[in-house]
Every structure is written in structure tokens, then in C-alpha cells.
Amino acid sequence: MHDKTILVIDDNPFILHLVRDILRKSGYQTLVSSTGEGGIKLATEKYPDMIILDRKLQDISGHEVLETVRKDKRACDIPVTMLSSINARHEILRSWTLGANDYIVKPFNIHTLLDKVHRQVGFSEHEERYYYI
After folding, report:
1. What is the set of domains in the chain, with CATH numbers?
2. What is the pLDDT of residues 42-99, one digit of tens each?
3. Residue 12: C-alpha distances to residues 38, 67, 84, 97 (Å)
4. Considering the entire predicted model, what is its pTM?
5. Which residues are CB-neighbours of 43 under 8 A, at least 6 positions away?
6. How far apart are CA 50 and CA 30, in angstroms?
7. How far apart are the C-alpha atoms of 112 and 62, rounded to whole Å?
């Protein structure tokens, strides 16, 4: 396994497990939470190398999670990539204004996800490259 850990926060079980499985197959360690509160707890106790955060969660919004993480002295510098089906420019800009480092629009492809992860935390030593002909 790679020494980089990525926290995935999404209330959709399919997306949560899909992202987790893609990251694991690429050699990253993962933490997962299906709630914003659970994600905040993991982020501020485990200090992952990156957070992939759904913008809309059942308990609190992804933006609230982002704001809380940014206020924590030890977690404030963790790169956060928002994940959302909302592709409106003003919503993307709002996420960046609140401190997000990047934004992925659902549906996404494996290349986009991994490219954005690599930009934030680097390549995995054990990454399996995905090639399409």
C-alpha cells in the first residue's frame, strides 16, 4: 500500500464504494464516511493526506464540512476536492472561495478522479494505470 491516505465522504453508498475501490486499486489507503459529522471526526483525528467530499450530504452540507476542517489548526491544510453533480459555475466558485482545492463533477471518469488525486498527493507506488484503446 501507499503511504498516502485519502478520506472519502459521500452519502451515496455506490459512489462511496466506487471511489474507495478506485483509490485502493491505485494503491492508496482510504478512510470512508457516509456522513458529514463522521467525516469531520475522521479528518480531525486521522489527518488524511486528502479529502474527497460530496457537496450534498444528508446530515450537513459538504460546505459546512469544508468550513469546519479549514478551522481546525492541524487539518486546515489538507487538500479537499469537492464532488458534486452540480456543474454551475457559481457553485464551483463558492466551493473554491470556502477553501476547496479542486472540484469534480459527477458523473466522473477514472482518469479525471485519479488525475486530480495525483495533483494533490502524488502518484501511488503501486498504481495500476488505466489505459483504453
Report:
1. 5-121 (3.40.50.2300)
2. 999 999 999 999 999 999 999 999 999 999 999 999 999 999 999 999 999 999 999 9
3. 14, 21, 11, 25
4. 0.90
5. 7, 51, 65, 69, 72, 75, 78
6. 10
7. 20
In this prediction, residue 85 carries a pLDDT of 92
Cβ atoms 25, 130 nearer than 8 A: no
DSSP letter string, the chain? --S-EEEEE-S-HHHHHHHHHHHHHTT-EEEEESSHHHHHHHHHHH--SEEEEES--SSS-HHHHHHHHHHSTTTTTS-EEEEES---HHHHHHHHHTT-SEEEESS--HHHHHHHHHHHH---TTPPPP---
